[in-house]
Design a protein that fits this description.
The chain is mostly helical and 96 residues long. It has one domain: lambda repressor-like DNA-binding domains (434 Repressor (Amino-terminal Domain)). α1 crosses α3 and α2 crosses α3. The longest helix is centred in the first third of the chain and has 17 residues. The chain is globular, with a radius of gyration of 16 Å.
Length: 96
């Protein structure tokens, strides 16, 4: 029996993007950022990502990877748990 080669990434056409979840997470990031008085560009620099990427995350146009979530939480000086709890409460509010 011959082994099949391992292919990296998702199969063509597959997606894990959830618009409601992405929007709730983005709103949570924006709320925590503005609460701390940090500009979007400053937060992006602190997190080590592009400002345009941060904008897409905040608008819910992009679902960040786990690594980016950790970077954003670190830049906001909060735990990932706090960031996720904020996103979860916004998601629940949107569903209600």
């Amino acid at each position: 029996m011959q082994k099949r080669p391992v292919q990296r990434g998702r199969p063509v056409g597959a997606t894990t993007f959830d618009a409601e979840l992405a929007q709730a997470f983005g709103a949570a990031v924006r709320a925590l950022r503005t609460e701390r008085g940090i500009a979007q560009e400053t937060l992006a620099n602190l997190a080590g990502i592009e400002r345009s990427h941060m904008g897409k995350i905040e608008r819910g146009e992009h679902a960040p990877t786990l690594a980016v979530i950790f970077k954003i939480a670190g830049a906001l000086e909060c735990s990932t748990a706090v960031l996720m709890a904020e996103a979860e409460s916004r998601l629940q509010a949107a569903e209600a």
